């Protein structure tokens, strides 16, 4: 049930702008982001639903790019210079089921490191607009 509620929240909500953006700090700063990325990438690689998507990926580079991108999305001091989401996922023919699996694995990673649900939802809301760029039409 939690996954369905959070996924619905992710897909339907965009985070409002706040005068003081504390999400990066609330996620544990760069060290917290690094832990989230490492745990979530481990989940992706172990998840039979999506692990094949990453077969051709340079996993060390992927982890590094996610760490910078997640830092920026969370309002941290990072400047993501990687591919935009449309270009990064072009030709992969990803479905909503793939996207949902990635979100579930990310949620599991955030749960495992002890990130509070409210903080998770704030972060997921910022990632939500990427769904339209990732899923193939």
Instruction: Kindly report how far apart the N and C termini lie.
Output: 27 Å
Low-confidence stretches: 9-19
Structural class: mainly alpha
What's the β-strand tally? 0
Total domain units? 1
How helical, in percent, are the residues? 55-70%
Task: Note the beta-strand portion.
Answer: under 5%
Q: Strand count, sense and closure of the main sheet?
A: none
CATH architecture: Orthogonal Bundle
What Rg do the Cα atoms give? 14 Å
- Give me the strand/helix succession: HHHHHHHH
**So how many helices?**
8
CATH class: Mainly Alpha
Word description of this protein:
With 137 residues, the protein is mostly helical. The chain has one domain (2-6, 25-134): Globins (Globin-like), CATH 1.10.490.10. The protein has eight helices and no strands. The chain has helices at 2-12, 23-26, 29-46, 59-73, 85-89, 96-112, 117-127, 131-134. Helix 3 packs across helix 6. The longest helix is centred in the N-terminal third of the chain and has 18 residues, at 29-46. Residues 9-19 have low confidence and may be disordered.
What topology emerges from the helices and strands here?
Layout: H1 2-12, H2 23-26, H3 29-46, H4 59-73, H5 85-89, H6 96-112, H7 117-127, H8 131-134
Helix pairs in contact: 1-7, 3-4, 3-6
